[in-house]
Amino acid sequence: MTVNAKRFLADLHKLRSFGASGIGKGVVRQAYSDADLASREWLASRLADAGLDVHFDPLGNLFGLGGERSLLIGSHSDSQPEGGWLDGALGVIAGLEIARAAKEAGAAPISVVSFQDEEGRFGVTTGSDVWSGNVSLQQADAFTDNDGLTLAQARGRMADLTGPFLPHDRFSGFLEMHIEQGPSLDQSDDRIGVVSNIVGIRDMRISFSGRQNHAGTTPMHLRQDAFQGLSAFNAMLNNRLADVVTPTTVWTIGHVSLHPNASSVVPGQVTFSMQWRDEDAARLKQMEQVIHDLAKETATERGLEVTLGPVMGIEPVAMDAGLQEALIKSAGQSAPNQWRRMPSGALHDASNMASVMPVAMLFVPSIGGISHAFDEDTDEADLVLGLEVLAGAAQALA
Amino acid sequence: MTVNAKRFLADLHKLRSFGASGIGKGVVRQAYSDADLASREWLASRLADAGLDVHFDPLGNLFGLGGERSLLIGSHSDSQPEGGWLDGALGVIAGLEIARAAKEAGAAPISVVSFQDEEGRFGVTTGSDVWSGNVSLQQADAFTDNDGLTLAQARGRMADLTGPFLPHDRFSGFLEMHIEQGPSLDQSDDRIGVVSNIVGIRDMRISFSGRQNHAGTTPMHLRQDAFQGLSAFNAMLNNRLADVVTPTTVWTIGHVSLHPNASSVVPGQVTFSMQWRDEDAARLKQMEQVIHDLAKETATERGLEVTLGPVMGIEPVAMDAGLQEALIKSAGQSAPNQWRRMPSGALHDASNMASVMPVAMLFVPSIGGISHAFDEDTDEADLVLGLEVLAGAAQALA
């Protein structure tokens, strides 16, 4: 089969016109918004034009079905409240073009999907989460957005379009192409990333409580300063983790809340977020132990009380070896010496799909590592190169 | 003259009944509130009973005048929104008792003052600030409280009581007794602090701007994490200041504001308060230089932008040598081996008075170092010991 780069780019730009906003190429197209519904109706018509059977499931996940049992290619087309034009849209339109090219060539059929609410207006990767059975439809229906609207109310907007959930065994596997959303490819000579794993996430809240006091009359050696506790914990953590982590491990203190947060008062309490990600569950556990031990040590040394919140998390997911191999082989042909294997630090619909079928992912660079922002972008040559690598793998697998 | 401890304590407890609130011995008696006005009318009657001439100036500062020219003793009787029973009230009632005892003994006259709004409902040490001429009445009248009420409106409540500002040269000097509001005396064997200086304060805002980014897809070595900048700055600052400070120097990061302050986002910006206090203006300047240089160094090393806000400040004020000497001599008699010289880390009305007359201050312990809270307290034996030391000095000076 031969993919048509021009047609692929035209469809990608057309999808962007639904909710086009802000500076750059930005879009505002949250799940179940007017722009999202309009874009799904347009996409349904393009899938039909390509000779695919159009199907919406109860969540609003949109399928273009290419046969009784086929390879599934896609991603999501909803956006962040202020999103970029590529994100999930790229993977959906790549799926459309490959399925269309396969039909035209009389090759084995390919199916396409645009999952709903990957960006988490209601949950996180809500559409694929429910279809894969991780969360029941009944549980998900009670999820609310920031304005208190329930998912049940939101998906009611699509009720006249929807049919039943599809059986997973209609599909032999799932391929998802996505922008990297990080700077690794962009800052290298590589143009293609074959994803090895989607990293696991651990997230917890930690509080240190000391003694709130007068910033003028409390001598330094008598202070139990919660901020100083956090600062010492952070500095020591960076040292201790050095022996445990790999170059792709990340950890972040992204939220800090001091009390009473006034310049003339020694802070009596601090609550902060501690998040860490790695592709290896055992390493995540090792890091958890370091964090636990160090938080307790810091508290003891500084006369603070420590509260360790529950450790929330998502497990690491390995990509299927066979599907990865097909992507690697295709990358070797279409992008020789310009590809690498790499983990995904961000979560994707592929994480959920991995629990019900073989899955693999392909990354293309994000200019400047920017994503989830109006100025998110990728060179068109890289978009097309990604499409070609994906099509080559799909042809080999279908 | 002989002070009457029982009468002194009875008046102190009576003053507490105006606005008595909360647990412990707490009071709610903000400047110009009903409780404050009622307490000032009661205090005026006690001053009159003691044979003093009662005078309210335009701010509502309440004087009990003991002669044509006299030593002035006092403090303030307004409280924080949730305050302790002693704070300024102690110094006012001590003044009342000493002036009364002087009258009874036919000794040289003593005058008494209760300044208005020391706690800063409208400004900071507003009553003494205006009387000393640091701020004009016209400027101060435009100050507002948290509800938008102006000082002009608030002091209008006392308009039928007030007369003109008194000339400063009616007074030969000012003595102020106060609870320490810190733990130094309480944690030692000393019961009396003779204040050498009121420390100066420097206060500024510092911001580090890095690059806000995805906490999953941004490798550690490519991050420009503003929180990591703050943490590194703080750790290094504690080291660098070690060569500059004395045991009474203090510095505090009390306010921290991260942006966007989300657990899955590498923080792009942090703004924090940096406050430092010392009794020596040159040392304050040295510390400022260390802070400036280090903030810039930290920013350069970590690829951050730094913004250094204006340095706000109050100059250190030295207590008068002659008045200090009188307090030291009296402490040596009434509290031998139980007193020390010490700076005041908190601001007091005495800071303003020092610009118009000789000034000295006396501290008594605060149990647990607690102040500006309902459970602020001091042993009654320490209250009485402080009264006796102050009376001894007043007698020598009057």
From TrEMBL, chains A, B:
EC code(s) of this entry = 3.5.-.-
* TM region positions: none
Domain Peptidase M20 dimerisation, residue spans: 200-299
Protein residues bound to Zn(2+) 1: 76, 87, 178
Q: Which InterPro entries match?
A: Amidase_Cbmase (IPR010158), Bact_exopeptidase_dim_dom (IPR036264), Peptidase_M20 (IPR002933), Peptidase_M20_dimer (IPR011650)
One Pfam family in the UniProt entry: M20_dimer
- Provide this UniProt record's keywords sorted from A to Z: Hydrolase, Manganese, Metal-binding, Zinc
Cofactor note from UniProt? Binds 2 Zn(2+) ions per subunit.
Q: Which GO terms describe its molecular function?
A: hydrolase activity, acting on carbon-nitrogen (but not peptide) bonds, in linear amidines; metal ion binding
Q: Which cofactor does it need?
A: Mn(2+); Zn(2+)
> Looking at the keywords, is Metal-binding present?
yes
Q: Which residues bind Zn(2+) 2?
A: 87, 119, 372
Describe, as the record does, how this protein assembles with itself and its partners. Answer: Homodimer.
- What PANTHER family does this protein's entry cite? ALLANTOATE DEIMINASE-RELATED
Instruction: Provide the family line.
Output: Belongs to the peptidase M20 family.
Protein known as: Hydantoinase/carbamoylase family amidase
Q: Which organism is it from?
A: Parasedimentitalea maritima
